[in-house]
Design goal:
seven-stranded mixed beta sheet, 14% strand
């Protein structure tokens, strides 16, 4: 008899972004003349850089000739891309410990963040800093590690609350709180905060001392502008023994629809199986990928490789500057309206709370109904986010400017 995975029935009814989309549809249905500005979007608005399109054309032409056709590629990714990543994103930035053998090319950060659970032991307890990108929690729940839902939390997951009193910076797990796998995301989605080097060092020291694995989601590292803020966890000595880093080309180069990223699983990771024998996580992840994944398309990997050319570097800088200008405008507008604001300096996300007692969904409705602006309710990222909203810098500059002028007109919450 087939039995369905009961964990699906424990997850809340609707995924945050579908609920936001549903409410926007409902509003548009009732107000067809109103142009809603999507400030909730995590998707990008700039098209692919010219060098990427050109690389895709060249690779597509190769695929059309028998002499240069590529069938199944290596599951870990082609050497040309793994080498470019290791050299440019790590070695040239003063991190000699990472080599191409540590890099696995992915179809984006989301799949790997969820799939990494395949290499966890059965009794591992995840710890998630909240508010958090929902994938860390939901993927653990689906895999049976969530335990039972309890007041918006899960009995099987340790929640490390990073709330407004600490400026949304997380504290290390308190004594007695188990954190076998720790999810950290910096620059943070949704709060836009970053971890200074001395803070990140504490997490690495904690992980080494407690034999915890850190999963470091640095999908937004390119958005860091403040000097001295670590771009990679491997800037901290010892991290290569306890951390996996996950990155994406989605937000830097418009790859949200192309799908490509990479995950660093260092060969130097130092963990064991339950029986005490040494576990080689790099080989395990390779085995996992070879079993369940057939690699990223050749054309896509050539497209990603082009981002490491001088033109590619310039295109990324241009994109980041464009979105960060939007984020800065949102930030200054909200500050000017008297809201409490974090983010928008080293990340494309602006996280704010007006001086009001409304909860996140009430605020969401206010912005939608009074300003035709869509936002993401902070509570969707965890209870601690209630009363907050997230806006993104990913829309066009013209629509961002229009949204800012509409925000200024919503007088009953600001
Ligand atoms: N990690 C974070 C924190 C994100 O915000 C996102 C996307 O919004 C992802 C990962 C997923 O990125 P990708 O498009 O590479 O799957």
């Amino acid at each position: 008899m087939f039995i369905a995975n009961q964990n699906f029935s424990r997850l809340p009814e609707s995924y945050l972004f579908s609920e936001v989309a549903r409410r926007i549809r409902e509003f548009k249905g009732a107000n067809p003349e109103s142009e809603v500005i999507r400030m909730d979007i995590g998707d990008v608005s700039l098209p692919l850089p010219e060098c990427v399109v050109e690389a895709m054309r060249r690779a597509a032409a190769e695929m059309g000739e028998s002499a240069t056709f590529h069938g199944y590629g290596p599951e870990q990714g082609y050497d040309f891309l793994r080498e470019a990543v290791a050299r440019t994103d790590y070695n040239d930035r003063g991190i000699p410990t990472i080599s191409p053998d540590d890099i696995f090319i992915s179809d984006g950060a989301k799949s790997d963040l969820a799939n990494l659970g395949d290499i966890f032991g059965t009794d591992v307890r995840p710890a998630v800093v909240t508010p958090a990108y929902p994938v860390y929690i939901d993927s653990n729940v689906l895999a049976g590690r969530g335990g039972m839902p309890e007041n918006g939390l899960w009995s099987g997951i340790s929640f490390l609350t990073a709330g407004p009193e600490s400026g949304f910076l997380p504290s290390l797990p308190a004594d007695g709180v188990r954190a076998d796998v720790i999810y950290l995301c910096y620059p943070n989605n949704p709060t836009g905060t970053v971890l200074p080097a001395e803070e990140l060092r504490k997490w690495v020291e904690y992980a080494l001392a407690h034999k915890s694995l850190i999963i470091y989601d640095s999908a937004y590292e390119a958005y860091i502008t403040t000097p001295g803020i670590p771009h990679s966890i491997y800037e901290v000595p010892g991290a290569e023994k306890c951390a996996i880093e996950v990155r994406s080309f989605s937000k830097t180069a418009g790859f949200t629809g192309v799908r490509c990223g990479y995950t660093v699983v260092p060969r130097s990771l130092d963990f064991t199986f339950a029986d005490g024998t040494k576990a080689d996580l790099n080989r395990m992840w390779c085995r996992r990928q070879c079993t369940k994944f057939n690699g990223v398309g050749y054309v896509v990997q050539r497209a990603a490789e082009s981002l490491y050319s001088p033109e590619g570097r310039k295109a990324i800088s241009r994109n980041v500057a464009y979105y960060m200008k939007n984020a800065a405008l949102l930030r200054s507008t909200l500050l000017g309206l008297g809201a409490e604001v974090v983010g928008g300096v080293d990340a494309p996300y602006v996280w704010f709370r007006p001086q009001s007692d409304l909860d996140s969904w009430q605020l969401f409705e206010r912005l939608l109904h009074r300003g035709a602006i869509s936002s993401t309710p902070g509570v969707g990222f965890g209870k601690v986010g209630d009363g907050w909203l997230r806006l993104t810098g990913f829309n066009t500059d013209a629509l961002t400017a229009e949204a800012c002028s509409r925000l200024s007109g919503i007088s009953d919450i600001f």
